[in-house]
Each structure stands twice: as C-alpha cells, then as structure tokens.
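Re: that backbone. Tokens:
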C-alpha cells in the first residue's frame, strides 16, 4: 500500500498488509496534496477523517462574526475528524486549514459505521479508541490552560507544560504568535506584551516558535 503511505499511520497500526486494500477501499480512501493556507475542509462539509502523511493542519472553529478558536493541530502520522465520524456526524462542525504544505490520506467518515465486522475493522476501532482517549487528555490539559485568569498565567501554564513534554527548558511549539493567541483564547497584542515582560524579567527567551525557560515558576 505504498501508493498511500510509506510509514503506517496510528489509525492503521497492527492491521495486516493484506487487509489494508479492502479496508481503505471501504472507507473511500484517497490521497491529496495541499498548499500552505489551503482549506482541507470547511464547517458544514461532508465528514472526513484526515490522516497526515506530511505537513501540519490546524483545526479551527469560527462563529458567525468570524471569531476563530483554535481547537488543536495535527502533524505527520496524526489525524483529525475521527471524533465526529465516531459520533455519527454527517458534516464537519469545524474547519481544517494547512499551516504547512501537506499530504493527506482522506477517509469518508460517514462510512465508518458501515464497515463489515472483521479483524481489521476490530483493530481499526481499537486504534480509534486509543487516539480518542489521548485527545481527550489533551483537551483536559487545554481547558486547564484556558481556566487561568490572566494572559500571563495562561502563557506560563502552557509553556511549562511544553517544557515538561519536551523534557527540556528549550523547546519548540506548533504555533506561530497568532495561532498561540487563538489557542489560548487571548488577544495577540496582550500576549505579545506579556512575552516582552517575561523576557525582561529573565524568565524566558523566545524567537518565533522556539522558547527557552530560564527559571521555574509556580506553573512548572
């Protein structure tokens, strides 16, 4: 199945190679390339499961006035849309946009419930359950960041978590400044001002998406 991918994505781990063609055909799998900034899917479009073969996408929710809330990102080997497919939704409630040039394997999420029982289908469902559980944990963590009262507290909480995840005070985040502000639900100008204060206080250094924390805070 190298016409679809070279490295097995997490959603297909443990499925026998001989079973993949039939399974992928049942899910209407097809591969597509996207440019930076291009929309993969809009809110209201047909429900899909997107598997990132390369690049990175951002999952965004917009209100009627165009205010954006970044739900999360997905990079190579990761996927999006699986929760909506498992919930039986026929339409995507969010938009998905490429923040890097990307190669995707697209699956028809509306076909997920129609798969015939088989060992491959069982393993697919097990993989989906594990992926959904991991994303539930990430959502709980994001809610913890968002629950902080001030922009400074949200920043320190998020950056501290990233440092712990990287196992180092030096790390790179998957957002640019505007995307980070959207993710944390703060104004970009206010966030930039707080980053400036944190630099002057000697707590951190930052350049674009790279950070270095110099001292532990109460958030660490």
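Recovered sequence:
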């Amino acid at each position: 199945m190298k016409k679809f991918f070279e490295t097995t994505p997490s959603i297909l781990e443990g499925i026998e190679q001989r079973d993949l063609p039939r399974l992928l055909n049942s899910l209407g799998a097809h591969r597509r390339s996207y440019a930076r900034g291009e929309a993969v899917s809009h809110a209201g479009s047909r429900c899909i499961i997107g598997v990132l073969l390369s690049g990175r996408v951002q999952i965004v929710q917009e209100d009627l006035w165009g205010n954006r809330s970044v739900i999360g990102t997905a990079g190579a080997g990761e996927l999006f849309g699986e929760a909506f497919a498992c919930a039986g939704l026929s339409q995507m409630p969010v938009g998905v946009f490429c923040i890097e040039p990307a190669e995707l394997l697209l699956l028809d999420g509306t076909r997920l419930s129609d798969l015939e029982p088989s060992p491959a289908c069982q393993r697919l469902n097990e993989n989906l359950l594990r992926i959904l559980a991991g994303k539930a944990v990430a959502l709980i963590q994001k809610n913890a960041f968002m629950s902080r009262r001030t922009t400074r507290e949200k920043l320190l909480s998020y950056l501290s978590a990233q440092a712990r995840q990287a196992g180092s005070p030096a790390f790179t985040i998957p957002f640019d400044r505007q995307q980070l502000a959207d993710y944390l639900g703060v104004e970009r100008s206010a966030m930039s001002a707080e980053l400036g204060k944190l630099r002057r206080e000697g707590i951190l250094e930052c350049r674009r998406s790279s950070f270095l924390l110099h001292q532990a805070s109460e958030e660490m």
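Helices lie at 20-26, 82-86, 119-146, 151-166, 177-184, 188-200. DSSP finds six helices and eleven strands in the chain.
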